[in-house]
Amino acid sequence: MSKQLEHQFSMLVREIRKEYVGNGPKEILTRFVDTWAISEMKGNLTNVEKFMITSNEGRRMVHDARTKLVKKIYTNPEVVTKLEDLMKAKIVRIFSDINIEEDIAMTVFVFDRVLDSK
């Protein structure tokens, strides 16, 4: 059951990212650990962002924009409700970052109960 739920969670995160960012990650893997849902996403950057990161200033701008945008996405009550409804748990906090050079983003969703780990 957990692998199926992890997959559903990944697909929901991809759908949310696609809706708000314009494209979703090419690969996404979610694992549940205790109260955490950890989503690792590869292939996040657009062609414009890939061009921008060829300079130091561009790297900083893309990192800042991506980080702020993702944090803003998860302040939307509709987005939070979708995730909470799927997990049947409340989100306590969310941590997110992206490694621009490797094009890997990581988001940790912390819920108010231990998630299904079977």
Q: What can you see in these coordinates?
A:
It is elongated, with a radius of gyration of 14 Å. Helix 1 (2-21) runs antiparallel to helix 4. The model has no long low-confidence stretch (mean pLDDT 93). It is of the alpha+beta class. The protein has a four-stranded antiparallel beta sheet, covered by helices on one side. It is built from four helices and four strands. The protein has helices at residues 2-21, 47-52, 56-73, 77-87, and strands spanning 27-33, 36-42, 91-99, 104-111.
Strand-pairing-aware structural class: alpha+beta
Using the CA coordinates, give the radius of gyration. 14 Å
- Residue stretches low in confidence (pLDDT < 50, at least 5 long) are none
Counted beta strands: 4
What secondary-structure arrangement, pairings included, does this model have?
Layout lengths: L1 H20 L5 E7 L2 E7 L4 H6 L3 H18 L3 H11 L3 E9 L4 E8 L7
Antiparallel strand pairs: 1-2, 2-4, 3-4
